[in-house]
Write a structure and sequence with these properties.
111 residues, mainly alpha, two-stranded antiparallel sheet, 5 helices, Transfer Agent, Phage_TAC_11
Length: 111
């Protein structure tokens, strides 16, 4: 299955196979709740700092996989192996945030 950037999808090689990830509105709402944030602007500001913890990566990638239709827990995501190791996971999460917010790397929300 190929990722469709127009729909906010990205592709990442995880556990040796290409997977599609997408931060749907439901996935974004899941992240708002997980980080106890009030709205999507606060979510964008949280990730716009450019500093992501391993916990952040697990949540973002898990939400992206679930948004694309996979049934996977955050604990399962934490055990997954990414092409490129930790740097690959960072790249996947960054690309996913960029695709979701459509801001060319700037994840601050715009009206």
């Amino acid at each position: 299955m190929a990722a469709n950037r127009r729909r906010g999808e990205i592709a990442a090689t995880i556990d040796g196979r290409e997977r599609v990830l997408c931060l749907t509105l439901g996935a974004l709402a899941e992240l708002e709740a997980a980080f106890a944030l009030d709205d999507i602007s606060a979510l964008a500001a949280r990730f716009g700092s450019g500093r992501l913890s391993a916990f952040d990566l697990t949540r973002i990638i898990g939400a992206g996989l679930r948004g694309a239709g996979e049934t996977v827990s955050d604990a399962e995501v934490g055990a997954m192996r990414f092409e490129g190791g930790a740097a690959g996971a960072v790249g996947a999460a960054s690309a996913l945030l960029e695709a979701a917010f459509g801001l060319g790397g700037d994840t601050t929300a715009r009206p």
